[in-house]
Specification:
Blueprint (H helix, E strand, L loop, with lengths): L3 H18 L42 H4 L7 E5 L5 H10 L4 E6 L2 H14 L4 E5 L12 E7 L8 H11 E15 L4 H10 L9 H11 L2 E10 L4 H4 L5 H10 L2 E10 L6
Parallel strand pairs: 1-2, 1-4, 2-3, 4-5
Antiparallel strand pairs: 5-7, 6-7
Helix pairs in contact: 1-4, 5-7
């Protein structure tokens, strides 16, 4: 079994390669396949205010800024910020009086993000090299935390949510899009799902994921979006019999993209 350090090195190597390939247009992550009728996890950012195509590496599985209730003046922290895709969208929502900090543990991603930032010239955006399990931000510094298809890659998810809790101001909130599982995937499908949705390796069961959030002390937990990653019968037929496909369809077992939000409570004496 791989250690946490080994898993992090695998993630760094994979996403470092994606960052280096970004200039060639080959930066695909969770949703590399764009063929057939399979439902893709990667969302369409093209019509969003603040969208910068050079920062979109196709690594997301949702639109956390859509549900994050960002307002002008907010200080926002994006976990696993990659080349800056969600950071730049968030910046358009918080305005000149706000601030957006992107954190990523992959040096190549930080380099790519800073290169994009230099082109855009924003003064209230910064990218920091750091680990989600030990965030490079002060306690009670952040109004809103966002993240997009990243926490499932973090070995210690309880520690990650504890760090989110620490970073948020009392009354602050997070809005995170992530990958979760529902039930046990058929053994024949596990390798296929890894091929089509490579970011599911560290995903928790949905109920376990939500319980980690509750256990951390967050309140007002709300599931904003819950969308299954669906593969076509043509793809499934390569691995499963017609009977197995029918059983799989009925089971509601599978990989899901969720967007979830919750608040850090204001604790009074």
């Amino acid at each position: 079994m791989q250690t946490a350090a080994q898993l992090k090195n695998i993630v760094k190597e994979k996403y470092g390669t994606i960052a280096q390939q970004a200039s060639t247009g080959c930066g695909c992550g969770c949703s590399c396949s764009r063929t057939g009728n399979d439902q893709l996890l990667s969302p369409d950012y093209a019509d969003l205010k603040g969208y910068y195509a050079g920062a979109d590496l196709g690594l997301g599985c949702g639109l956390p800024t859509q549900f994050a209730a960002l307002v002008e003046g907010d200080v926002v922290l994006d976990l696993g910020s990659g080349a800056g895709n969600d950071v730049f969208v968030a910046r358009s929502l918080v305005g000149e009086s706000g601030k957006v900090i992107g954190v990523d543990m992959t040096e190549e991603m930080i380099t790519q993000a800073r290169r994009n930032l230099a082109k855009l010239g924003y003064q209230n955006v910064e990218f920091r090299l750091g680990d989600i399990e030990g965030l490079p931000v002060h306690t009670d510094e952040i109004d809103v935390v966002i993240s997009n298809c990243v926490l499932n890659l973090v070995p210690d998810k309880r520690k990650a949510f504890q760090e989110i809790y620490r970073a948020l101001k009392p009354g602050g909130h997070f809005c995170i899009s992530d990958i979760v599982l529902n039930g046990e995937l058929p053994a024949k499908l596990k390798s296929l799902v890894e091929l089509y949705a490579g970011c599911v390796a560290g995903a928790l069961q949905r109920d376990e994921y939500l319980q980690v959030i509750r256990d951390t002390g967050f309140t007002d937990l709300e599931l904003k979006k819950d969308q299954q990653y669906a593969m076509s019968d043509a793809i499934l037929a390569k691995y499963l019999s017609p009977e197995d496909i029918a059983s799989y369809r009925r089971s509601n077992v599978g990989v899901f993209s969720i967007t979830v939000s919750a608040k850090k409570p204001v604790i009074t004496a």
